[in-house]
């Protein structure tokens, strides 16, 4: 796999002005009562979907400007039978869109404005569908990363696992059944957090909300992910909070993280890492008090984070064991001031690599 990186060195790491505010998962409950975001992401039960479309035409449409494809979405209801919703599908993504990388591309679901009020898709208009790429295991592995970050902060995308049957409307291919997960719409995530979209690029990390930026950087370190960039908005969404002065970062696309264990994931050569399982902190140098505030969030969420893996029946025992050990290593680091100083402040001996800005992949 060839990866194209556009690199820029940071001029300085030290953030001289600390700014930010906290948002914990409990805060969202107040907002949810006032604003109805629909039932889709209110629980984590696996939902069963059926998508009928021209599969061959959809899979071939992986160019720079994919077209919309008409489709029918069927949602299996327990009592009233399947609910049919006419939708439009579009191939999306970057790395996973390429046929050489993924068997089935990720999709964007465009739902009609008017839908059955009793539908699970009530108030949902656009949804990303993260489909099976090379292995169905990666779906659950990446889905749980989103769930982990939900436990850390409300400034995160919600996700829901689905078992999807893909049927070819042309009748040329046999139905394919695979797991996938639906991802919360960007606008809905912003509204849920009383914020708006912030699309200006080339915003350096020192100008981002310090508490939330540190939270993102520590989380990316926790999961072994270096495939992100704030200035280039690569796998990072920025929000403009209501009444807030500084943008808030929200990470997404975690398939290249070490914790997911995707075989295709490779670190950039410039980062000098042996594999994506090797962690590298790529955030700013924050004051110890701020880092301790961030660490406290992760420590408080630790039991629930471990439970995500221990209680998931879809994960292989070997993967659960390796993942819990990987998380143990992270927690032992943030519990040790010397390790924090060595790995998160001094970059583990690779400060130049840690300061590399990655624009993105082709």
Q: SSE string, helix = H, strand = E?
A: EHEHEEEEHEEHEHEEHHHHE
Distance between the termini: 10 Å
**Which quaternary structure do these chains form?**
single chain
Described by strand count, sense and barrel closure, the largest sheet is:
7 strands, mixed, barrel
Helix share of residues?
A: 25-40%
Kindly state the number of beta strands: 12
Neighbour order of strands in the largest sheet:
2-3-4-5-6-8-7
Summed up:
This protein has helices at 27-34, 55-60, 137-152, 186-192, 210-223, 288-310, 317-334, 337-345, 351-354, and strands at 7-9, 47-53, 69-77, 81-91, 107-110, 126-130, 159-168, 176-183, 195-198, 236-241, 248-251, 356-358. By secondary structure, it is an alpha+beta fold.
């Amino acid at each position: 796999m060839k990866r194209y990186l556009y690199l820029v060195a940071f001029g300085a790491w030290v953030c001289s002005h600390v700014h930010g505010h906290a948002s914990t998962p409990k805060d969202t409950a107040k907002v949810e009562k006032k604003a109805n975001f629909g039932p889709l992401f209110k629980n984590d039960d696996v939902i069963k979907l059926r998508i009928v479309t021209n599969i061959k035409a959809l899979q071939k449409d992986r160019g720079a400007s994919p077209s919309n494809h008409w489709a029918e979405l069927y949602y299996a209801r327990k009592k009233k039978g399947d609910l049919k919703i006419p939708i439009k599908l579009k191939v999306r993504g970057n790395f996973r869109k390429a046929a050489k990388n993924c068997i089935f591309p990720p999709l964007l679901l465009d739902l009609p404005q008017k839908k059955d009020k009793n539908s699970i898709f009530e108030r949902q208009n656009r949804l990303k569908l993260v489909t099976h790429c090379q292995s169905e295991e990666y779906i659950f592995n990446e889905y749980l990363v989103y769930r982990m970050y939900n436990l850390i902060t409300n400034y995160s995308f919600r996700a829901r696992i689905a078992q999807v049957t893909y049927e070819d409307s042309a009748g040329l291919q046999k139905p394919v059944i695979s797991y996938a997960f639906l991802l919360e719409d960007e606008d809905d995530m912003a509204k849920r957090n009383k914020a708006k979209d912030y699309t200006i690029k080339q915003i350096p990390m020192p100008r981002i909300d310090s508490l939330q930026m540190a939270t993102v950087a520590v989380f990316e370190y926790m999961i072994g992910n270096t495939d992100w960039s704030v200035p280039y908005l690569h796998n990072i969404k920025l929000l403009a909070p209501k009444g807030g002065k500084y943008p808030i970062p929200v990470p997404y696309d975690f398939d290249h993280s070490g914790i997911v264990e995707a075989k295709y994931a490779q670190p950039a050569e410039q980062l000098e890492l042996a594999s994506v399982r090797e962690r590298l902190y790529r955030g700013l140098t924050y004051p110890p008090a701020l880092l301790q505030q961030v660490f406290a969030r992760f420590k408080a969420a630790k039991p629930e984070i471990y439970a995500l893996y221990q209680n998931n029946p879809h994960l292989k025992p070997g993967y659960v064991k390796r993942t819990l050990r990987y998380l143990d290593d992270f927690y032992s680091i943030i519990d040790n001031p010397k390790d924090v100083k060595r790995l998160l402040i001094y970059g583990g001996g690779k400060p130049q690599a840690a300061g590399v800005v990655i624009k993105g992949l082709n």
